Amino acid sequence: DRPTGQVEVIHFPGAGGDSVEALLHYPLDWPKNEAPSPAARRPLVLDIHGGPAGTDRDFWDQRWSGPLLLYRQRGAFVLQVNYHGSAGYGLEWVESIAERYYEQERVDLEAGVDHLVDQGLVDPERLGVTGWSNGGILSAELITRTKRFKAAAVGAADVEWISDWANVDFGAAFDNYYFGGTPWEKTQEYIERSPFFRLSEVSTPTIIFTGTEDRNVPPHQSWSLYRALQYLEKAPARLVLFPGEPHGLRKVAHQRRKVEEELAWFDRYLFEAAPGPDEALKKESLLAALLARAKAARTGQAFGRQAGGKLVPETLTYEGLEVGRFEVTRAQYAAFDSSYPVAPGAENLPATGISFENARRYTRWLTQTTGRPHRLPTLDEARKLRKKAGGEGNTLDRWAGYSPNPEDAARLRKLLAELPGPAPLLLPVGSLPGSGEDPVFDLDGNAAEWALDEKGGGTPVGPSADQPSKPRSPEATTDPDYIGLRVVVGKP
Questions:
Q1: pTM of the full structure
Q2: Residue 48: CA count within 13 A, CB half-sphere
């Protein structure tokens, strides 16, 4: 059910005026039929295929060497250019770069970027380049020729061709064909075509990848690139080695590491922002609740904030009402009543066994301590909050595995006597998913909470952990050990 976005085959004039074909992958959040405009320009990642006689085709192809969807998820265009020398366009096209290595490919790649800038799609100040093997070779070439790229990922790439001739399984055949002869016959040619001798021009932050057992592009090439950039100190550089790997990464752990390292590099230097929400994390999951709870105010291990040297509840606005993020905890209540027992490790359990009058006394103490008018919610407010929250909280349903009728619920509560403690079903506040974007927790379970009725008396509004989520018996039957409170700030 996840989006795959729009992909378009495009053409533009490249080297020698030849028409070059490319694939343009749109950002996943790109609105359909949106006209290009300067305000809507997006980042671009230029993803260069290997070979050089490789081809980027218009079919589903997601892999570790080019995590296209993850770039598009970050709001970027991805451009894949089938430059001169690529397969699939006839023998003449493939052979067009013989003894002209780099010359036409570089022109094609930059022409593709320029085309998208001219179309108003791409921000010329937010360009990145990535590639593996020949794609890495061309990425390294580009960053020595232009400063337009804000980030580069160079995988398994040659940068110095003289040593390549003798140190690669097919080095002599490859280099003789593309450079027109051996290093001693074409010494100047080899030097001029080697990006290594132009690395002093590089200002692009560059991450470099290589397998330690690569025989197609030996790892010393990546070391040379890294050492030079490190020595020159003109561009941030990082080298990531994959032990035991040949030219292509085989171990899933290494493939994942490569993707994560590359994304982190581009997040830092190209996107300059963290990625959007992780779609792997479901909002209603326990993990989401745990992560949301981790952002709540704390004093040591206890939830809450400090006011006048005392631990008090954190409040926030939910459904137009400023309300406690959590039920009042035992540690918070003990700041008011030092005789209230708090066992080690129980600081964040809800304070229960609290009478209505003591609950009101606590809110008056909070008002004096914080200088803000705290109170209990009205019965109407409490019921509206419960209804808005839903019904997936800590109730007897969760413990029983079904929604018990009154007779079953009564029998289950008798069994609770076999468990230690006065309220064994209570959970630390915030243990289950909350309600709202900046969540309020436990509105739909855990402890029943005191509310002020129309006559000025108190009514516990539940469900609580010892009651079904939809009780068919009066709320007042809740065990006092499962009755606590939540505070509200402001006038009713």
A1: 0.57
A2: 34
